[in-house]
Amino acid sequence: MTEPPWFAAWEEAVLKGDLASIDPREDLDLVRDVALRGAEAGWDLGPLFRALAEREPLALAEIAIGARAPGGANAVRAALAVIEVLECHLPVGSLYRRLALVAGEASSEVLEVAAARHPAASWLVALSDAVNDGMPGLVALRAAAAHPTFDRTCRAHVTSGHLDALLAVAKETGRAEPAAALLAAGLVDGALRAAIAALETDPGTALSLAARLAGVWGPDPDALFVRLVQRLESAVAAQALRKAVEGACPRTCRLLDTVIPALVRRSPAS
């Protein structure tokens, strides 16, 4: 049976956040070695990282993300707990990319913290690709939905091919920006799917949606909205769209006047 690692009393004290016996800057290699061994033994590195954050932030940065950083979920979670300090001393995008790289099973937690703290950051798109979180782009798009740069963020995620995430966030939020971003990239089918998802989630978005899509499409938005109506399955969404395009898209309005009664008859409330 493998013997558990042995720690000297001063090493245990360091792991518990007591730095009285050492100078973290002068004894950086010693502290890093203790952190490495502690991480391997399953010690909680939180007390050590908190102590370093207060006393020697640059030593903390070296131990958290340097070339010989312990890595793994334990160490990265300890780093995330003092992320405000790390951000003050390191380029923020590089910091999160490095943490995600060494985080192991905690990489999705790195992305969540990064997105919550920096929802408009352009580097979040690449970080979304680097982290295996199930649906690339969704965490970042969710975080950006309440930010003024959401439109720009949606376009960046279109460029990176995060189409499923854009459709998902359109359905979750009822926002028009995902559909407009997809349309701007020439992805008409995806744009129509996102538009329908947004309308069915929040019919109140119809006016914003119609204006954004018409602005991207250019001349004869009627042709686009006719294609949208042909896919609608919600009477409420259809009625909202009818009000939004009143007077601007006669063909769409005529088609909706035919489609809406049929959708009403098919609705569960009928």
Feature tags:
0% strand, 270 residues, single chain, 69% helix, 18 helices, mainly alpha, 2 domains, elongated
Give a quick summary of the entry.
By secondary structure, the protein is mainly alpha-helical. Helix content is 69%, strand content 0%.
SSE topology sketch:
Elements: H1 9-15, H2 28-41, H3 46-55, H4 57-65, H5 72-81, H6 83-89, H7 92-102, H8 107-117, H9 123-130, H10 138-144, H11 150-159, H12 163-173, H13 177-184, H14 188-201, H15 206-217, H16 221-229, H17 235-244, H18 250-266
Strand content: under 5%
Total strand segments: 0
How many domains, in number, for the residues?
A: 2
Taking all Cα atoms into account, the compactness measure Rg is 26 Å
CA distance, first residue to last residue: 71 Å
Q: How is the biggest beta sheet arranged?
A: none
Helix/sheet category: mainly alpha
The backbone outline, from C-alpha atoms, is: elongated
SSE order in H/E notation? HHHHHHHHHHHHHHHHHH
Number of helices: 18
Unreliably modeled segments: none
Mean pLDDT rating: 94
Helix share bin: 55-70%
Structure, explained:
By secondary structure, the protein is mainly α. It folds into two domains: 1-118, no CATH class; 147-270, no CATH class. The chain has helices at residues 9-15, 28-41, 46-55, 57-65, 72-81, 83-89, 92-102, 107-117, 123-130, 138-144, 150-159, 163-173, 177-184, 188-201, 206-217, 221-229, 235-244, 250-266. The model has no long low-confidence stretch (mean pLDDT 94).
